[in-house]
Design goal:
The complex is a heterodimer of chains A (337) and B (293). Chain A has 337 residues and is of the alpha/beta class. Helices cover 64% and strands 9% of the residues of chain A. The longest helix of chain A has 32 residues, at 140-171. Chain B has 293 residues and is of the alpha/beta class. The chains are: A alpha/beta (337), B alpha/beta (293). Chain A binds chain B through residues 2-3, 5-7, 10-11, 13-14, 17-18, 168, 171-173, 175-176, 178-182, 335, and chain B through 51-53, 71, 73-74, 78, 80, 82-89, 93, 96-98, 100-103, 140.
């Protein structure tokens, strides 16, 4: 353990003294926080968000839908539309029928009540049938923030461990360590532990910063979220380790890491849900550790999921980590061949 | 007496290249043993196979009479031809880091004194000058107080002053009774430091022995030259004589005999020059090409 702790401390010191890397580790998250704050915190009270069930619904007779301050969203899935009403993501949901108009709202939302008043005033001549739902407001920022945090974790983990080990191999540092009694397991575990500390610490700071500026919704347990961050970061570090296990060129490592990160950015539900995506795409996404991290973190934060409810994601991440560590151990070389 | 290190039929093949072709040698304890040869001769591959950094294609390596074990890294010291250290760490921190890797160690302060590191202890290791960095790398090689130390071209790229300073350090290590295995392509370095050596070319040993033995065996003649006119009479001189404009050169087995003959021939001895063959000459003779090609 003495060797492990010495390597762990040396790597932390190296990161701390590398002012450019240290600054970027904090500037990048700061940019994310500022970007999210600018994008999502502006009030949008002049619009009424009206949902319509059925893309081909005839709206000619609905006067509210004709108003220029009303934003229309069409839904194929009634279930999804009702979820959006429940979480205040739309103000009013209507379903035009030949005999009248069904509409849903969440009375806990002030803008939903305002929208109902307008509907009652503008379409009083119709046979209106009201249904109510309840649920806490979930803004897009609440939905997207677990993905943004996970994405930041992915970049910090993959590039943090991947580039460092490849650079060490390229400039001969690994060869020097190979000539000592340090085992590859001691070296790699110390690198992973150091990076894990950095990734989790930086992401915790981003979470705190975002929470301060955006008042994020957090319905679940912080300890469960931290556990997801730890297990998720280890899985991403393991993936980075597979890339770094034998590569001796920083250019090649960069290319391989980009090949991994871009599909994960698109298919891991960071920016949009794959709920209505084709089955094959959802299965493909399930092979990516980032998908499980995002889904588990989102479930905890905006649905209040317990540890048991997201345990299948943690199992999948643990299994992936085990497989990637075994692969990395098999592939690892101290030197270029 | 059992040699501290013995190598038998060591070979290394890379796909289409045979870098080392079945070489054998043994090294008694406490000497400085040199592996000499031009770049690409196979000396670094040989030393790295002995160190355990590269896996031999075939052959055996014995340390103190037994097959070299997995704990050899605890017992030997290694300085590579070129190596980097973790970025941003200071000299003292690098010493502490490597100190933690070994069971048996020298005190860090002792190493600082031995390798003369005191003046740059708080500097970043990767920002040291060439000579300072080599002294630090030597300290890392000695940190576990090894009985055997491998130095792979330790003075390549250093200025003459730094080289001499490094030689002085190697002398100090030898005086402590440690066995030093040195690869170099500087013949003056080998002549100055090595008690015994092998010359390697194209992956094979082409000569083996002490520098003095090798020179006496392969190049027993000395060259004596002096300024002489074209009319100078050479009848009383023995040995092979060659003339260049204004200079006469004699290749002789005995300097004393030649000097006597020159005195008898009334030669102008104030311009006398004696040239002793070097290992470089030996290499040229054995291989037919220069050492630094």
């Amino acid at each position: 353990m003495v060797k492990f702790w010495a390597l762990f401390a040396a790597r932390n010191m190296e990161f701390y003294r590398d002012r450019a890397a240290l600054s970027w580790a904090f500037i990048f998250p700061l940019l994310i926080i500022v970007g999210c704050a600018l994008a999502f915190s502006r009030p949008d009270e002049t619009l009424i968000r009206l949902g319509i069930i059925g893309e081909n619904s005839d709206l000619k007779s609905v006067n509210l839908a004709e108003q220029r301050y009303v934003e229309l969203t069409y839904f194929d899935s009634t279930k999804r539309a009702l979820e959006q009403i429940r979480h205040h993501q739309i103000d009013l949901l209507i379903e035009p029928k030949s005999e009248g108009l069904n509409y849903w709202l969440n009375p806990e939302s002030a803008s939903a009540l305002a929208a109902r008043e307008l509907l009652l005033a503008l379409d009083a001549d119709k046979n209106l049938h009201e249904q109510t739902l309840s649920g806490q407001a979930i803004r897009y920022v609440d939905w997207v923030m677990p993905g943004v945090l996970a994405m930041n974790m992915m970049f910090a983990a993959l590039f943090g461990i991947g580039y460092v080990i490849v650079r060490y191999r390229q400039n001969g540092v690994l060869k020097r360590f190979q000539a000592t009694p340090v085992s590859s397991l001691q070296f790699i575990s110390a690198q992973m532990a150091s990076r894990l500390l950095i990734v989790v610490a930086v992401n915790s700071l981003i979470f705190i910063g975002c929470d301060y500026f955006l008042d994020l919704l957090m319905l679940g347990s912080y300890s469960t979220l931290l556990l997801i961050a730890l297990i998720g970061a280890v899985s991403l570090l393991s993936l980075g380790l597979v890339i770094a296990s034998r590569t001796a060129s920083e250019e090649l490592a960069g290319g391989l890491l980009n090949t991994l990160t871009w599909p994960m950015m698109f298919f891991s539900e960071i920016w949009f849900s794959l709920e209505n995506a084709p089955e094959w795409m959802q299965q493909f996404a399930a092979l990516m550790p980032l998908t499980h991290i995002v889904q588990a973190a989102r479930a905890v934060m905006i649905e209040g999921a317990t540890l048991a409810m997201i345990s299948h994601h943690l199992m999948a991440l643990s299994l992936m980590t085990l497989m990637m560590l075994l692969l990395a151990a098999r592939l690892f070389r101290w030197q270029r061949e | 007496m059992t040699p501290i290190l013995e190598v038998r039929n060591l070979s290394k093949h890379y796909q289409r290249v045979e870098a080392v072709k079945g070489i054998s040698f043994s090294i008694p304890a406490g000497i400085c043993f040199g592996l000499l040869g031009p770049n690409g001769a196979g000396k670094s591959t040989t030393i790295e196979m002995i160190e355990g950094i590269k896996t031999p294609t075939s052959g055996e390596i014995y340390y103190k009479g037994n097959i070299r074990g997995s704990d050899f890294a605890q017992q030997c010291g290694i300085q590579f031809q070129s190596t980097a250290l973790p970025d941003f760490l200071r000299v003292r921190e690098v010493l502490k880091l490597f100190h933690s890797f070994y069971d048996k160690t020298l005190a860090i302060e002792e190493l600082i004194t031995l390798c003369d590191l005191g003046e740059f202890l708080e500097q970043e290791a990767n920002k040291l000058s060439g000579g300072q960095k080599q002294r630090l790398l030597l300290a890392l090689a000695l940190i576990n107080d090894p009985e055997i130390v491998f130095l792979d071209e330790p003075t390549t790229g250093l200025d003459p002053q730094s080289r001499r300073r490094f030689w002085h350090l190697i002398d100090k290590i030898k005086r402590q009774g440690k066995t030093v295995i040195l690869t170099t392509h500087y013949m003056d370095e080998a002549e100055s430091l090595c008690d015994d050596l092998v010359i390697i070319d194209h992956g094979k040993i082409i000569a083996q022995g002490s520098p003095r033995q090798l020179l006496q065996e392969h190049l027993p003649h000395r060259q004596v030259s002096f300024d002489a006119s074209e009319n100078f009479c050479t009848d009383r001189l023995s040995g092979e004589i060659s003339r260049n404009p204004g200079t006469l050169t004699i290749e002789t087995l005995s300097i004393e005999t030649t000097l006597r003959e020159l005195q008898n021939s009334a030669a102008d001895l104030s311009t006398l020059r004696v040239y002793n063959p070097t290992l470089e000459d030996l290499f040229l003779k054995l291989t037919g090409h220069g050492l630094r090609e």
